[in-house]
Design goal:
With about 775 residues, the protein is of the alpha+beta class. The protein folds into three domains: about 5-120 and about 175-250, Aldehyde oxidase/xanthine dehydrogenase, a/b hammerhead (Aldehyde Oxidoreductase, domain 3); about 270-435 and about 595-750, Aldehyde Oxidoreductase, domain 4 (2-Layer Sandwich), CATH 3.30.365.10; about 440-585, 2-Layer Sandwich (Aldehyde Oxidoreductase, domain 4). It has 19 helices and 32 strands. The strands form eight sheets. It has an eight-stranded mixed sheet with strand order 4-6-1-14-11-12-13-22. Strands 9-17-16-15-10-32 form a six-stranded mixed sheet. It has a four-stranded mixed sheet with strand order 18-29-30-31, sandwiched between helices. Helix 14 runs parallel beside helix 15 (about 510-535). The longest helix is centred in the last third of the chain and has 28 residues, at about 510-535. It is globular, with a radius of gyration of 27 Å. Bound molecules: pteridine-2,4(1H,3H)-dione and dioxothiomolybdenum(VI) ion. Pteridine-2,4(1H,3H)-dione binds near residues 228, 302, 306, 436 and 437.
């Protein structure tokens, strides 16, 4: 059968994205008119110059919305089109349609606000907190008695840690095409991780039942969480345009519009306190996380608990009190980003350990080793850890890296090189797999075996370059006993599998793969039952493999039939060749009142060791080596998993060291294009040495483990490796735990121009 692998087409540049699709006749292009400052009000719009540009120009505002002007899900606080007031810079005020994209953009630029006035803006989450401006009530998790435990500690240190946000930089910006439908509804092609979520929002905005809105997602050119919830607004704008004009409408954001108007990783500012005994065992930990939620709720209430669940990192801590605050500011609503609050939590506990190691005079690697999670340890939310691989991955990583010889070599290097210093850090990871919102842990699949023996698979999973389609094809091929090339994974559509969850939380293959496996197994059983009846054989003796049917006690006799011939006969015999299946992750429970339960199906473990060389005259640095030992379970597709491990690490390292997402105190994003926002590239990355530890995981499909997010955490080692080198250069140097550690910051610390007072002051958004 012919190869139809997406990834080969993709490598050849033949796959199409939203903006590559053939344009329908009569297409209108959309652009947006957005707010000019962080907070303000307006009386109306002057459209005269825009409308005078061309007869095709149409401008739609909130008054043109037939349904609800509302994009919010957890909290209804986010209008699609601002009415009278705006709450962040780049908020959409009007939708502009025209016969060409450049015309639409020129028309948008010609719109003027009438009666506009700026209002005071808040960009710092601590300021919002002090004013009591929280989007929802804080959440606190408690275990043991941290206050009492601090009194018994040999050492207690406290401090502050700040982490900046991060731009997703999916290569394909946000986009959608909407087509009016002769049923009175709309059909959409949307670049979204969650087609059902888009369907629901479009239906709400247009005032339609969900069955009149069909959403299809073929693939995305990257998403990283940025299209989990935030694809909906752009799709709904296109849908509004199509509904109002009864013409097809395409929206596809310019990079600057995308960077200005879409959410990013949440900046956090946090306070911590950690207490240890004289052997360096952590006895107590407390933290307050001031999440900069931005101007609307978005997914923030699901992100805060992931921060809290990961507050202890990969360590066992017997007494914990951690609190998360959703602070409303006048910045773009921050949203899901690979790791989903986890990285922010990990940075704080690592900062606390770093400070404690210095105070104890203990090797930071040794301090971490002593506190690693062990089998049966109970987490601070009451979940016993099973199948713990924290120590195993840690020790393997250290052995692979040749620690402590590597440490000794670095010390020797630093002794003999006055203008260049090396540093090292380890970063152990333990990451919980499942959506933090329990109802989201469900998925469905629909499989058709066509009567020539070829197979089509639909699930709720969306392909964003992460390779979920390859995993699904393999899972179904195995279950049916056919080759992977006989299986096509269909584009994701709300009309084939309904009520799906976004492909997120690293669970795409876990949940949809399990549903697909169940559906494929159902068809396989029907085929075997049919074969047994028609060939008068015991069904238990029959198997399907390699595209053939065998009677197993006598394999030497060769195959009885090809899969395709069996399918053709079953079709003749009126056997149903299609099956739908549903999967809901078992064993999850959580009590929000007590903050106790089992929110995760399992955890992913791993460890990275990273080294860096800092040029202490120029502040420049180069990461040298990264050694990672990562817990993949039995990998369904080792190449896909390796790509995810390396890519996630690069993204984490970018966040920790390089990417400088900064807003000024007027809420303006200072780097809003790819010529000014730096990203990791091949030169930035160290040599990579990845070991996949493939222990069978009974909690997920085919004994595998989720892979998308956990390795991002390894990048946090970048911050601490540079800090290690800086301390070699300037013994006793005091560092603010302020991420990212850019070259600019390194130089400031080395010259003393940057006083380590923390990033409060004018640096908004931190
Ligand atoms: N999305 C979500 C996520 O809705 N819930 C989660 O727990 C999650 N975790 C990671 C990434 N996306
Ligand atoms: Mo999520 S950060 O969309 O997995």
């Amino acid at each position: 059968m012919k190869h139809n692998f997406d990834f080969i087409q993709n490598l050849l540049g033949r796959t199409v994205y939203i903006d590559d699709l053939p344009e329908p006749a009569n297409l209108l292009h959309a652009a947006v008119f957005t707010s000019p400052s962080a907070h303000g009000s307006f009386a109306g719009l002057d459209l005269s110059a825009a409308l005078a540009l061309d007869p095709t120009v149409r401008v739609l505002t909130a008054a043109d919305i037939p349904g609800q002007n509302q994009l919010g899900t957890a909290v209804l606080d986010e209008p699609m089109l601002a009415e009278g007031v705006w709450h962040f810079r780049g908020q959409v005020i009007a939708l502009v349609l025209a016969g060409s994209r450049s015309l639409a953009r020129r028309a948008a630029a010609a719109i003027k606000l009438v009666g506009a006035a700026d209002r005071p803006a808040v960009t710092d989450p601590r300021v919002a907190f002090a004013r009591g401006d929280l989007i929802l009530k804080p959440r606190t998790q408690r275990w043991g008695d941290s206050a009492a435990a601090f009194a018994l500690c040999h050492l207690v240190v406290s401090g502050r840690a700040d982490s900046a946000g991060q731009e997703h930089v999916y290569l394909e910006t946000q986009g959608a095409i909407a087509l009016p439908d002769d049923s009175g509804g709309v059909r959409l092609m949307s670049g979204t991780q969650g087609p059902s979520g888009v369907q629901k929002i479009v239906a709400r905005v247009l005032g339609l039942p969900m069955n009149l809105v069909e959403v299809e997602t073929r693939r995305m050119g990257g998403a990283f969480g940025g299209k989990e919830d935030q694809a909906s607004g752009w799709a709904a704008l296109a849908a509004l345009g199509a509904f109002a004009t009864q013409r097809p409408v395409k929206i596809y954001l310019s990079r600057r519009d995308d960077m200005t108007s879409t959410g990013k990783r949440h900046p956090y500012s946090s306070d911590f306190r950690i207490g240890l005994d004289k052997d360096g065992k952590i006895l107590a930990f407390e933290a307050d996380y001031y999440q900069n939620s931005g101007a609307a709720c978005d997914l923030s209430p699901a992100i805060i608990p992931r921060t809290l669940f990961h507050a202890a990192g990969a360590y066992h801590i017997p007494n914990v009190r951690v609190t998360g605050y959703l602070c409303r500011t006048n910045l773009v609503p921050f949203t899901a980003f690979r790791g989903f609050g986890g990285p922010q939590g990990f940075f704080v506990i690592e900062a606390a350990l770093d400070k404690a190691a210095a105070a104890l005079g203990l090797d930071p690697v040794e301090l971490r080793r002593r506190n690693l999670l062990r089998e049966g340890d109970v987490s601070h939310y009451g979940m016993p850890h099973e199948g713990v691989l924290a120590t195993e991955t840690f020790e393997r990583c250290l052995a692979r890296a040749g620690y402590p010889e590597r440490r000794a070599a670095i010390q020797e290097y630093n002794r003999t090189n006055p203008a260049s210093k090396r540093g090292l850090a380890v970063m152990p990871v333990c990451f919980g797999i499942s959506f933090t919102k329990m109802m989201m842990n469900q998925g469905g699949a629909l499989i058709h075996v066509y009567n020539d023996g070829s197979v089509g698979v639909s699930t709720g999973a969306t392909e964003m370059g992460q390779g979920v389609s390859r995993k699904l094809a393999l899972i179904v091929a195995r279950a049916l006993g056919v080759s992977q090339t006989a299986v096509r994974v269909e584009s994701t559509r709300t009309t084939t599998v309904a009520n799906t969850m976004p492909t997120a939380a690293s669970t795409g293959a876990d949940i949809n793969g399990m549903a697909a496996q169940l559906a494929a197994t159902e068809i396989r059983q029907r085929l075997l039952a049919f074969a047994a009846a028609s060939l008068q054989l015991d069904p238990a003796s029959l198997t399907l493999r390699d595209g053939q049917l065998f009677a197993d006690p006598e394999p030497a006799a060769g195959p009885l039939l090809s899969f395709a011939a069996l399918v053709a006969k079953a079709y003749e015999g009126r056997v149903d060749l299609s099956a739908h299946a549903f999967f809901a992750t078992p064993g999850l429970h959580y009590d929000l009142a007590t903050e106790r339960g089992c929110p995760f199906a399992y955890h992913v473990y791993g460890c990275a060791l990273l080294t860096v060389t800092v040029d202490t005259l120029r502040g420049r640095y180069q990461f040298d080596d990264a050694i990672m030992v990562h817990d993949t379970g039995v990998s369904i597709d080792p190449l896909v998993d390796l790509g995810q491990i390396e890519g996630a690490f690069a993204q984490g390292l970018g966040w920790a060291a390089l990417e400088d997402l900064r807003f000024d105190d007027k809420g303006r994003l200072l780097a809003d294009t790819l010529s000014t926002y730096k990203l990791p590239d091949g030169h930035f990355m160290p040599r990579l040495d990845v070991e996949m530890l493939q222990r069978p995981n009974p909690k997920a499909v085919a004994n595998s483990k989720a892979v998308g997010e956990p390795p991002l955490m390894y990048g946090i080692a970048g911050w601490f490796a540079i800090a290690d080198a800086l301390r070699a250069a300037r013994p006793g140097l005091e560092l603010a735990y302020d991420l990212p550690m850019t070259c600019e910051k390194v130089l400031g610390l080395l010259t003393g121009d940057l006083v380590p007072a923390g990033p409060s002051g004018g640096e908004a958004g931190r």
